[in-house]
């Protein structure tokens, strides 16, 4: 997060000069707040957690990692506020080609802020639950620290199950309702709704095509989209063709539609996987089910994939706008930065991130093999 975040802040000024010029008055405050209130909390207490083991009391050691979690959550709040403002801008006025802040509270708590924040935070709990459950299952299978691993396995499954259910029925559902109200182009695209209609169906499966937009082999639930969005089976939901005729530019259908349905499919898989684990736990068979335990470590990357798919829906679904209905992506980049420079910097940073990723996995696997006991114990 630190490595990518710092580079991204520099990228605003180098690669997206017109964008930075337009949003600078809005984005300055939340980015500064994120650095002051979150970054320093995370870095300070993370150092205490890593280097304070056996040097401070157990209570202080626990408190330090709690503060890291709180700092990360505060960091997420300010970053997601900035992103949400791009999706649903508020509290501003456009003067001399720039968005100038007029109401800080309105800009922070814009129409999509809380929906996006809780949706993202909930996704983090799913990631954490399956990470904990997957590592614990690996330790149980190898008869390593079974008492501690059994506790963390149960905790991971409980957190993962609760977060997965909340994702489907609360945060994900409410976020989709918000998108329908504020970004109908995005909703129509990821739902594959071609024409505006009452009793709009909920698409369960289909194969999308771009030109003209259509969905082949569609499997639908009649009226369910209208009901889920507006609590009324007869409510009208806007479709792609009608929005286009009204002059609204539409995002590309294929990546948004496919990413959304893969994300939802993975979300349903997380519910089944965690609920089945809880069922085994209640029956006293969890640690005696090797097939299920062997499955859990393979599930660790799946929530991360679901998060990335969700961001593809959010960001590609906003196109062609970088700030929704205010600034197009095509008008936001730096005109004095050439393609060769972009390619070179992309290759360099990607190489660094791959190296850091490999190092991270190496250290993670090493720590997992070590078990729950600290080195030298």
| Proportion in β-strands | 5-15%
Number of discrete helical segments: 13
Shape: globular
Low-confidence stretches: none
Question: What's the helical proportion of residues?
Answer: 55-70%
Tally the beta strands. 8
Helix/strand structural class: mainly alpha
- Mean of pLDDT: 91
Spatial strand arrangement across the major sheet:
1-2
Element string (H = helix, E = strand):
HHHEEHHHHEEEHEHHHHEEH
Radius of gyration: 23 Å
Sheet bearing the most strands, described? 2 strands, antiparallel
Distance between the termini: 31 Å
Describe this structure in words.
This protein has 377 residues and is mainly alpha-helical. The protein has 13 helices and 8 strands. The chain has a two-stranded antiparallel sheet. It has a two-stranded antiparallel sheet with strand order 3-6. Strands 4-5 form a two-stranded antiparallel ribbon. Strand 7 (321-323) and strand 8 (327-328) form a beta hairpin. Helix 5 (113-141) packs antiparallel against helix 12, helix 6 (146-182) crosses helix 7 and helix 10 runs antiparallel to helix 12. The two termini are 31 Å apart. 31% of the residues are buried. The mean pLDDT is 91.
């Amino acid at each position: 997060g630190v490595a990518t975040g710092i580079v991204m802040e520099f990228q605003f000024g180098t690669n997206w000069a017109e964008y930075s010029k337009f949003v600078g008055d809005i984005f300055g405050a939340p980015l500064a707040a994120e650095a002051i209130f979150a970054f320093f909390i995370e870095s300070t207490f993370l150092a205490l957690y890593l280097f304070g083991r056996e040097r401070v009391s157990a209570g202080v050691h626990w408190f330090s990692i709690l503060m890291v979690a709180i700092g990360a959550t505060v960091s997420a709040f300010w970053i997601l506020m900035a992103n949400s403002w791009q999706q649903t801008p508020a509290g501003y006025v456009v003067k001399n080609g720039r968005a100038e802040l007029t109401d800080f509270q309105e800009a922070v708590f814009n129409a999509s802020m809380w929906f996006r924040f809780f949706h993202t935070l909930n996704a983090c709990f799913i990631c954490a639950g399956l990470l904990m459950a997957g590592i614990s299952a690996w330790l149980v299978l190898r008869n390593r620290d079974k008492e501690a691993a059994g506790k963390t396995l149960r905790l991971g499954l409980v957190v993962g199950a609760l977060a997965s259910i909340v994702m489907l029925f609360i945060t994900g559902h409410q976020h989709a309702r918000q998108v329908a109200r504020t970004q109908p182009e995005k909703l129509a695209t990821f739902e594959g709704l071609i024409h505006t209609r009452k009793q709009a169906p909920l698409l369960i499966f289909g194969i999308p095509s771009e030109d003209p937009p259509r969905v082949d082999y569609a499997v639908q639930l009649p009226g369910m989209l209208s009901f889920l969005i507006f609590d009324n089976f007869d409510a009208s939901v806007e479709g792609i063709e009608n929005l286009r005729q009204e002059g609204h530019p539409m995002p590309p259908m294929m990546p948004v539609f496919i990413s959304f349905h893969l994300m939802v499919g993975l979300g349903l898989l997380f519910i089944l996987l965690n609920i089945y684990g809880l069922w085994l736990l209640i029956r006293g068979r969890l640690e005696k089910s090797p097939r299920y335990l062997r499955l859990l470590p393979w599930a660790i990357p799946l929530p991360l994939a679901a998060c990335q798919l969700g961001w593809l829906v959010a960001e590609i679904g906003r196109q062609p706008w970088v700030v929704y209905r205010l600034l197009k992506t095509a008008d936001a980049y730096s005109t004095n930065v050439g393609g060769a420079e972009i390619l070179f910097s992309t290759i360099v940073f990607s190489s660094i991130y791959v190296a850091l990723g490999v190092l991270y996995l190496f250290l993670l696997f090493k720590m997992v093999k070590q078990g729950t006991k600290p080195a030298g114990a």
